[in-house]
Amino acid sequence: MIALACDHGGFELMGLVKQFLDEHRYKYKEFGTFSTESVDYPTFAVPAGHAVAEGSCDRGIFICGTGIGMSIAANKIPGIRAALCTTAFMAEMSRCHNDANVLCLGARVLDVDAAIMLVRIFLNTGFEGGRHSLRVAMLDKM
Q: Is 97 a catalytic site residue?
């Protein structure tokens, strides 16, 4: 199950991400927002982040205008390792080396094809473990 959260800046891109998820039969839970009306991103990042941290959702995809606000809000939640990604390499490494459990995207920074590519990579890349496990454990103790 994937937790989805966006603010007004990410609403339209989130609709396209949901289409991708539907086409590939991913299950998700929406935490909002549900329109382009101006809202505050923490209102949606926090409950979605808690769903990931507590295990009712395996991963999250959070979208705002730049992705920065969502990533800051998500990373305030213990157990969340949110990665703001703008390149394929960042998305891959966020999973391989950091075991990121939330992908943050900026709707005003990425074109649709790039955003969908990042979602695909994030969802299909596993954690390497090994030496990276110690580092992730250190993060989890912070």
A: yes
